[in-house]
Amino acid sequence: MRLPRKVARVTDALPARRLLLVHAHPDDEVTGTGATMAHYVAAGAHVTLVTCTLGEEGEIHVPELAQLEAKQADQLGGYRLVELSRACAALGVTDHRFLGGPGRYRDSGMMGLPTNEHPRAFWQADLDEAADQLLEIIKEIQPQVMITYDENGFYGHPDHIQAHRVAMRAAELAGDAGPEKIYWTAMPLSVLKEGMEAFRELDDNPFADVEKVEDLPFGHTDDEIAARMDGTDHYDQKVAAMRAHATQIPDNSWLYGIAGDFGGEFMGVEYFLLAKGERGPGEGPNNWESDLFSGVKTI
């Protein structure tokens, strides 16, 4: 009698450590998690990026491409798809998907705008339907760690909030087969305070109208932060990925001011809250994790 052939699991062909990131628009992956992504790619982990929209409602900082905006040709989304591909290449990420396929969900624009009501706006997406699409990716990749935003989408954008809801719902549906640890992007108030002082002399100061750091729509106390990822070795990759998103990040952006004046000290270090799972061993004065897979069983 012939024995049944053993069918290999998809994950048998993948590295032991698998990281899934769920972001709202092209370029979101770079600003808050670019160094972390590059770090884990270089360390041999499998990094999967899921982007929920094409970013059709974004501003355009390249004058010769202004006609691509939503009110004119409405072709910005297709252009940003190419920018995202270039950014992923800069970070070394080879596994990138759009939730439901490219164009399934549309950029909703800022909170309260009429674009929130577009029938394809991600803000209007059926939660379970969108979560089911992400669940299929979770079943395929079986990531031990997932990164997304907090309940406020870090700063209140409706698509960021929806990305949080979808990611958390998909993890709930996955049950024990879902990610063991879930992190939310974050920024310590202590770092923001340092930033306010450092940027005070910059012409393009992002904190110019902020009197105190507690007035910002984001920021957490040091004891709330669980992980500090030092990706300063990949600072150049992060900057290259930012430059790939030229329509969204102008050449005179304060982000490049940081890059020029402070280098990897600010650009290469990223912080996270732990939303699910056990906190692993930490280090430094705050006992922050330096590895998102700390304490995770890898198979």
From TrEMBL:
Superkingdom of the source species: Bacteria
EC annotation from Swiss-Prot or TrEMBL: 3.5.1.103
Alphabetical GO biological process terms: mycothiol biosynthetic process
Cofactor(s) demanded: Zn(2+)
Keywords: Hydrolase, Metal-binding, Zinc
Enzyme class: hydrolase
Free-text cofactor note: Binds 1 zinc ion per subunit.
Coiled-coil spans in chain: none
Binding residues annotated for Zn(2+), in chain numbering: H25, D28, H160
Pfam family, one: PIG-L
InterPro entries noted in UniProt: GlcNAc_PI_deacetylase-related, LmbE-like_dom_sf, Mycothiol_biosynthesis_MshB
A single MF term (Gene Ontology): N-acetylglucosaminylinositol deacetylase activity
Catalysed reaction equations from the record: 1D-myo-inositol 2-acetamido-2-deoxy-alpha-D-glucopyranoside + H2O = 1D-myo-inositol 2-amino-2-deoxy-alpha-D-glucopyranoside + acetate
Similarity annotation: Belongs to the MshB deacetylase family.
PANTHER family: 1D-MYO-INOSITOL 2-ACETAMIDO-2-DEOXY-ALPHA-D-GLUCOPYRANOSIDE DEACETYLASE, N-ACETYLGLUCOSAMINYL-PHOSPHATIDYLINOSITOL DE-N-ACETYLASE-RELATED
Function statement: Catalyzes the deacetylation of 1D-myo-inositol 2-acetamido-2-deoxy-alpha-D-glucopyranoside (GlcNAc-Ins) in the mycothiol biosynthesis pathway.
Protein name in UniProt: 1D-myo-inositol 2-acetamido-2-deoxy-alpha-D-glucopyranoside deacetylase
